[in-house]
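pasting for ref. prot 1 ->
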Amino acid sequence: MKSKEVMNLLEWTGAIMKGHFKLTSGRHSDTYIEKFRLLENPVALDKICLEMANQFNDDNINLVIGAAIGGILLSGGVGKYINCKHIFSERVNGNMEFKRGFNIDKDSNILIVEDIVTTGGSIFELIELISNYQANIKGIVCLVDRSNKELDFGFPFKSLLTLNVKSWDENEIPDWLNKIALVKPGSTGK
């Protein structure tokens, strides 16, 4: 699947939004990707999960991990195509944890899946959480990388779409954006 096809899926499902948004990272942007418009669509979700799986199908992956909530759907779909177990982390008092009896077996080959990357914070948290186990992170794949920079997670990182969308720190918001009503979509418990 080419980047153009991923963009077409995002547009087709209504996931690309314009306005003034406060992102999970705390940054402000004039563009928001409401991933759940894509994730709620079974056709689009299936295509995305197949493509994510194809990025690492030669790496002997036996566990797919995502972060709740979007990562639940992605890890399940990717796990289906790789034919392996899939689990997810959750935030407890702002910290990533495995709950519900989830565990990582020794020497597991792990693929981390993520939806939208702005700063990479959730991926870094997952890497730290996984480091408590004797496992091998084989790679990381995301739906959209909107970071506008090269992120180094210390493991192979692939994105289905790189989208150059501007974002600003709280004290750098342009005047024209401040004139638009602020919306804070989504919630990760951060």
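and prot 2 ->
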Amino acid sequence: MDKEYTQLIRKLFPFLIIDKGNENLMNIAKIPAGRIVFQEGEACEVIAFILKGVIRVSKIGKSGKELNLYRVSSGESCILMISSTLATIGYPATATVEEDTDVLILSVPVFKKWMQENHELQRFVYKLLSERLVSVMTLIEEIVFHKMDERVAEFLLEKGEGVNLLSITHDRIAMELGTAREVVSRIMKDFQRKGWIEMSRGKVKILKRDSLENLCNVT
């Protein structure tokens, strides 16, 4: 295995011990942006750990409407892939490569064996499950209460009137809007991905005020 990948694996997934005895059990795959890696109902024949890039997991309805569930990025794995493998059921969503992605691949038998023996791997999976449950719960909250992204945009515009740099935390925004911090963080990350804002520790810089205003004016 390439030395660069070996170092990256040890940094991101230290519980996956790489030595001469098990190095041949792991493979590296480079997946280009736009490729669908799992479709709903397909069997998961491998387990992938993300080294670089982003994979988007979504649910596509019969009408073709798509709902983004979450994104999997560097240092993570897809909990739906893992749970489907452990339960021996089809993948319940669609996974699409959003950015060119490098993944570390384990075969299902190897993963299941390591899950029984490797307590650090178990903790990683349980933590991932907890985080994804919170992520999906916050997504449901957004859907139920509607237009939370507009409320966040309005809040930023109001607090940033006359200035473009705000000293504020996600906790504070969540408190002001009466929602969960995870909801605010998800929306803010989406704004940043679109280039509307720039975030740093305790600060938010508005880059495209007109885009935020346009969002607020959508009916």
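The beta strands are 26-31, 36-38, 46-60, 66-73, 94-107, 165-167, 197-200, 203-206.
The longest strand covers residues 46-60.
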